[in-house]
Each structure stands twice: as C-alpha cells, then as structure tokens.
C-alpha cells in the first residue's frame, strides 16, 4: 500500500510539472504569446508615449525662444516616433497568425446551409474580436504618430523662425540708447564684481584645496599631451630656423601640428579644470556659466592666434605657407588675433549679461561696438599689401579677394549701424570662427594631398619610423601613404564639419540626430540604406573571406596533400571552394547589411536583358569555366594543343585558362573557345605518347638493311619504351627516295624533343658508317635566260633548289677527293 501511495504521489507530481511546463493553448498551436497579452502590453506602451508627448508639448510652449531646448524636444519626439513604429510592428506576427487561422476556418456558412460546429464559431468570433482590438490599438498608435510628426514639424518651423528673427530683428540706435547703456554697464559691472568676489571668498574658505588640486591635475594632463606630442612628432612640431629649403609637405606638417597640439593641450587643461571644479562642487550656476564662456573664448582666441602664426610665420619666411612679405605677414597676424579677441569679448560679454539678467540695451550697445571694430579690422586686412611684384614693390590682394574682404567688412559695419545687431554679430562670428575652422580644414586637405604624392611620405619622420617598425619596402610605404591620406581627409571632415555647423546655428543635438539617421537608415524610395548595416555587412564578408581562404589552405595543404590527390584535381577543388565561399560570404554579408533580397531580385530581373546582350561573352566564359572545372578535360600541368597554341596549362579560372607555351609565353584563352573548339591533350590520362621520325634514303640502298638499322637505333635509346615496342614502317616509294618512319613510345611525351634529337644524330652517324645516302630531291636544271615561272614564288623556289643542288655536288666532290683512312697493320 505504501509503495502504491508513493507511486501515485510521484505520478501526480509529474503530471502537475508537465501541466506547468506545457505552453498555453495559443502557444501549443504555434501562435506564440496570446493576442490579449500583446494588446495589453502595447496599450500600456502607447499610453506612456501619449503621456510623454503631452509633456513635451507643454515644454514646447514653455521654451519658444530657446533653440537648444527646442532641439532636445525634437530629439525626444523623434524617439517617440521610432517607439511607435516598433509598437506597431510588434502586432504583425499576431495579425498574420489571426488572418492565416481565419483563412483556414473559411467563411461562415451561408444562410440555409448546414451549420458549423460551435467550437469553430466561437474560435472565429474570438479571432475577430482580437483582430478588432489590435486594429484599435494600431489606430491609436497611428493617431499618436501623426500628432508627433506634426509637433516635430512645428518645432522645426519655430527654430527656423527664431533664427530668422535673430538675424532680422532691428534695434533703434540713438543717443538715449547710449546713456541707457552707460547706466546699465555700471550696474552690471557692480553685480559681476559682487558675484565673482563672493564666489572667490567661498572658494578660499571652503574649496581652496579642491580648486588647487583640480588645476594641478589639469595642468599635468595638458603637459603630458604637449610633451608627448613633441617627442612623438619631433621636428614636425616646430620649424627649424636653420633649414632654408623645407619641402611643402614639411611646411604643411609643421603648420598643422604646431596649431593642433598646443590648442589641444590648452583645450584639455581648460576642459578638465572646469570638469574638476564642477565635480568638487566649487561652481555655482552663474559662475559655471560665465567660467565656461571664458574658457571657451580663451581656447578659441589661442587657436586662431596659433593658426595665424603657423601659416604666416613672420620671422621664418622659408617656412611660410603663403608667399607674403614678412612685414605684411606680421600685420595680418596682428589683425587676425585682434579680430579673434574682440569677437571673443563680444561673446563673453553677451554670456555674462545673459547670466546676470542685464538690460537688453547693454547687450545691444556692446555688440554694436564690437561688431563695428571687427568690421574695421576686416577692412584693414583688405588694405594690406601682402605680395611683391617682380621689382620687389608691395602688391595688393587680387581684385576679387579684395572686393570680397571689403564686402564682408562693410556688411558688418552697415548692419550694426542700422540696428541689425543679430545679423552683424552673425557675420562677424563667421568671419572669425568659421574662417579659422575652414583654414584649418584646408591645411589638413593640403597635407593629405601632399602625403599622397609618390615618395613624399618616405621623407617624413613618421614615414621613416613606419618603414623601420614594419619593415616596409618603398612600394609598401607608398601604399601606406595613400591610407594615411584617406585617414587625414576623414579626420578633417569628421572634426571640422560639425564645428562649422555649430557656427551656423546648428546644435549638437542636430548633429547627433543626423548621425543617428545615417547610422540606422536612410530611406531612398523603398530601399533603406544603413551605415551601421553596411559596416556590419562588410565585417561579416571580411570574416567569411578569411575563413574561406583558411579552409582552402587547410583542404589543399592537409587533406588533399596527405591523400596524394592529383594536382589538377586539387586546383579544381580549391577554385570551386574559393568561389563558393566568396558567394556565401557575399550573401551573408548582404543579409547582415539589411539588404532585402527581393529588391536585388527586381534589380537582377531588370539587368537580365542587358546581361543577355552586353555580357553574354562574360557569362559564356563563366559557365564554360564551371564546365571545365567539373568535367576536367585537362588540368594544370597538362600539355595541350588548342588551335595554334601549344603549351602547358598553368591555371584554370572561371573566365579564362592560362597556357604557357614552350617559349615561356603566357597565353590567356577564354574558356568558351576551349569548350567550343577542339583541344588536344597529350597528357590527359597519362604522359605516355608516341613520336615519329621520318627518314628518306636514296634508291639503290638495301631497304631491309635500312629497316633493321633504324629499328636497332630506336630500340637502343634508353627513353624509348620496350612495350609497346618500337616500330619502323616502310611508308612510301617517293619520286626520289624510299621513305621510312620510326615510331617509338615514350613514358613521358615531354621528352619527345630530346629523343628525336638523339635519334637523328644517331641516324646520321649510322648512315655515314654504313655508306647509306639520304635521298635528295631531284632538281631541274636551271636556265635563267629563259624563265618559265608562272609566279614569283615558283621562281624563288626553283632558285633555292638550284643553290642546294650546287652545294650538294660540291660536298660530294670534296668527299670523293678525300683519302679514306686505312687500318693500321698489326705490329
């Protein structure tokens, strides 16, 4: 009884466990999660997105004049739009399952027909109700999506209108404004003094050690960057005054690195100092805003000054990038630095006034003064005479450049005096900051082009080091220079383009949004191009390529080599495996890149007609190559004869076959010619082959003796096979000779030339020893006085025959007069 109770308890436990482990009915039918759970989950998601949209709409109304806030709101709205798309897509599997099941159930029975079972009716009603719930949820998501897109459009229009109002807003410039500016300036200066002094007392009393430590660590980081850069780049960092003939690449490199590294070191110091001040709690909101503006102005002014000095180099004319006079270079450098200083002061003052809630009149008055000064400096730069003519006299800028400089300066001054302060400040900022960034980018592009020139990179310090570290030859270093050139261009665009866009009113969030769109997908019609997908697809293809090459090497070097597979078979298998691996890697890479194969099928269908007409030869050769690799009528190493080409097969690819002739000439034959034409293969199954040597003897010679002598010579050659045995055929009674032919078989037909050469020499020696004469064709006596030649070729052939006849007679006469050697008498 006890055993039965235990058994029942175990059985009940197993049944309970099985019931718990079984999926719900919908899953048991392969329908995944139940529709109700999906609908409830997505309703919650859509409800949360609706709440977020309502809050963002309130934020839009509260930040009508804040461009940065509007950009951030737009980014959040775009994220909501993406989440709505994902929510809608999550219904697709369940909708497909419902529609498929409804099709399986069929239409409801017509009126008067036999009723269906209650189970089928209940299931159809349940599926219809669930489909209605899903459609309702999709409708809510679609309505919210339309609302979100309208808000995104509204934010974009607001930002555009805000920028336009900033440039077109006009202020009255008059004498009452001047008195108002003077009063506001005194009040704001007092407020600034009180704010800064209070913060400094707080720092001295409570945060002095933290501030000093933060400054010290930031200084150490900047020093490490600057000193490390000097040691790494060597003379690329500073110009050598003793060198009077530097190359253009050297000058570009010095200008670029002498601008970048010090500016970067200062930027690290200022940025890390601000971060550590804020991290240790040493900054208030107002002081933090003003200090950030001050640090930014210091960094930008230093960058502009360093860039101008690197390009102009007033004291080192041999290292100057622009061929200007030394005096003009000093003036231009002074003007550039002063313009950057006044532009920075304008920006810093505007930031301070905004932080301290100063009157608008003070901002207008300060911007008016700063923009007019900047305009005057720009005009002064146009008055400089930077170049020298043939006689050494100063010469002005080219007319177009000079007019452009004057137009910029006058536009800035006129816009400021007319009260368009926003427009004047915008122009002055573009002159200074955008001009500095574009000049730096231009130097970077020039450096890239100079590096890419053949042999230029080898003479740089970095090139010499790379060549020593990686053991590169000149060709490898030249290829590396192209890669370095590409990397320089990419780096210049990635760094410089966002900086230019920031100056033109774009926010960092705009750049982030564009980068996200480029990375996740650009819609071109019905095709989505994703940078991330492309990079992932290239990575997958590269991995497949490496695996294919490794598998080819392992299969050829380990498996087939140990199995002693024929060389031709190994080459065929290796080629087929290589193409198959590349095809698979390409398909997997395209799939990983997110490319829809249905689109490729449409493209392939559209190109099929063009392929049929324009690429039919290529396709024919490709198919022929596959047939050659499969049927293997010849393989690598075979001696083949294809038309007028005779030689050894070196390589069989899918398009053409490479044959090396006996003159060591490589002939590339399209595979279609080898498939459609007759090809002779001397070594198809083996290298056994037969050669023939024809011999003609004069009439009157003992034919049986000649036959036996030739057979003896053929049998005595070491390379001639005994089985099949050599054979000598009496082939013909010719007009002037009896013709014989030696036919011998060789184990390697490649030795046919050697055997023929040896046997011919042996025949000459034997015939001379046995006094057997080789037949000479009978010649007709020549009578040149009475030509009877039908053609010039007949005449030439007869003259040649006569010459040979006379030479033969002379040789026979000499031979007849020569005494025969008598045998010595025995001693």
What labels would you give this structure?
24 helices, three-stranded antiparallel beta sheet, five-stranded antiparallel beta sheet, 5 domains, 12 strands, 827 residues, disordered C terminus, disordered N terminus
> Structural class of the secondary elements?
alpha+beta
Provide the helix percentage. Answer: 55-70%
Average pLDDT over all residues: 78
Q: What is the number of beta strands?
A: 12
Strand numbers in spatial order across the main sheet: 8-7-6-5-9
Number of helical stretches of at least 4 residues: 24
The global form is: flat
Number of structurally distinct domains: 5
Biggest sheet statistics: 5 strands, antiparallel
Tell me the β content.
5-15%
């Amino acid at each position: 009884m006890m055993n039965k109770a235990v058994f029942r308890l175990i059985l009940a436990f197993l049944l309970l466990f099985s019931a718990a482990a079984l999926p719900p009915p919908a899953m048991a039918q392969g329908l995944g999660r139940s529709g109700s759970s999906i609908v409830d989950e997505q309703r919650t998601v859509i409800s949360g997105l609706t709440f977020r949209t309502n809050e963002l709409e309130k934020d839009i109304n509260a930040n009508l004049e804040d461009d940065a806030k509007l950009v951030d709101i737009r980014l959040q709205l775009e994220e909501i739009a993406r989440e709505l798309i994902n929510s809608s897509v999550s219904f697709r599997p369940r909708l497909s399952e419902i529609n498929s099941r409804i099709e399986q159930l069929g239409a409801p029975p017509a009126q008067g027909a036999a009723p269906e079972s209650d189970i089928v009716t209940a299931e159809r009603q349940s599926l219809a109700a669930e489909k209605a719930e899903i459609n309702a949820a999709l409708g809510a998501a679609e309505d919210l999506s339309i609302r979100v897109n309208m808000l995104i459009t509204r934010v974009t229009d607001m930002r555009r209108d805000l920028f336009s109002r900033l440039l077109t807003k006009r202020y009255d410039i008059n004498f009452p404004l001047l008195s108002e500016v003077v009063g506001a300036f005194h009040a704001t200066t007092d407020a600034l003094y009180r704010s800064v002094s209070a913060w400094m007392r707080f720092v001295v009393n409570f945060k002095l050690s933290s501030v000093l430590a933060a400054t010290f660590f930031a200084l150490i980081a900047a020093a490490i960057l600057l000193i490390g850069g000097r040691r790494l780049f060597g003379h690329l960092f500073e110009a050598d005054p003793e060198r009077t003939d530097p190359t253009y690449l050297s000058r570009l490199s010095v200008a670029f690195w002498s601008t970048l590294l010090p500016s970067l070191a200062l930027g690290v110091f200022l940025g890390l100092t601000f971060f550590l001040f804020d991290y240790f709690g040493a900054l208030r909101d107002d002081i933090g805003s003003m200090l950030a503006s001050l640090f930014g102005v210091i960094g930008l002014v230093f960058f502009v000054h360093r860039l101008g000095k690197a390009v102009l180099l007033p004291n080192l004319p041999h290292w100057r990038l622009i061929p200007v006079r030394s005096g003009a270079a000093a003036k231009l450098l002074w003007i550039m630095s002063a313009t950057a200083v006044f532009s920075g002061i304008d920006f810093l003052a505007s930031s301070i006034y905004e932080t301290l809630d100063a009157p608008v009149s003070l901002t207008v008055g300060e911007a008016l003064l700063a923009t007019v000064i900047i305009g005057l400096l720009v005009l002064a730069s146009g008055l400089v005479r930077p170049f020298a003519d043939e006689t050494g006299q100063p010469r002005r800028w080219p007319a177009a450049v000079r007019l452009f400089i004057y137009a910029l300066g006058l536009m800035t001054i006129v816009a400021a005096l007319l009260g368009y302060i926003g427009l004047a400040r915008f122009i002055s900022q573009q002159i200074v900051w955008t001009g500095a960034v574009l000049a730096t980018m231009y130097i970077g592009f020039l450096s890239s082009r100079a590096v890419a020139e053949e042999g230029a990179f080898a003479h740089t310090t970095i090139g010499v080091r790379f060549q020593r570290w990686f053991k590169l030859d000149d060709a490898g270093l030249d290829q590396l220079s192209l890669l370095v050139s590409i990397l320089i261009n990419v780096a210049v665009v990635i760094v410089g383009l966002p900086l230019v866009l920031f100056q033109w009113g774009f926010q960092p969030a705009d750049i982030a949004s564009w980068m996200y769109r480029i990375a996740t997908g650009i819609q071109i019609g019905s095709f989505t191009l994703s940078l991330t997908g492309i990079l992932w697809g290239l990575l997958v293809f590269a991995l497949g390529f490496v695996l294919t090459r490794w598998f080819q090497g392992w299969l050829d070097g380990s498996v087939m080599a140990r199995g002693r597979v024929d060389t031709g078979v190994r080459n065929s298998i290796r080629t087929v495996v290589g193409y198959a691996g590349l095809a698979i890697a390409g398909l997997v890479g395209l799939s990983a890149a997110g490319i829809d194969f249905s689109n490729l099928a449409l493209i392939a269908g559209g190109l099929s007609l063009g392929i049929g007409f324009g690429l039919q030869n290529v396709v024919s050769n490709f198919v022929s190559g596959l047939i050659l690799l499969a049927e293997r009528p010849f393989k690598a190493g075979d001696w083949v004869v294809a038309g007028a080409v005779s030689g050894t097969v070196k390589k069989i690819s899918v398009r053409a076959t490479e044959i090396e002739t006996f003159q060591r000439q490589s002939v590339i034959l399209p595979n279609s010619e080898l498939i459609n034409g007759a090809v002779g293969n001397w070594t198809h199954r083996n290298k056994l082959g037969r050669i023939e040597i024809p011999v003609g003897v004069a009439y009157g010679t003992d034919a049986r003796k000649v036959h036996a002598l030739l057979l003896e010579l053929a049998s005595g050659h070491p390379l001639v096979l005994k089985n099949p045995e050599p054979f000598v055929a009496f082939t013909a009674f010719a007009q002037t000779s009896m013709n014989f032919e030696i036919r011998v078989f060789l184990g390697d037909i490649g030795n046919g030339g050697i055997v023929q050469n040896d046997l011919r020499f042996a025949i000459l020696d034997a015939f001379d020893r046995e006094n057997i004469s080789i037949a000479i064709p009978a010649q007709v006596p020549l009578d040149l006085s009475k030509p009877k030649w039908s053609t010039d070729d007949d005449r030439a052939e007869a003259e040649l025959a006569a010459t040979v006849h006379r030479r033969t007679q002379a040789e026979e006469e000499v031979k007849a007069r020569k005494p025969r050697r008598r045998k010595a008498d025995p001693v």
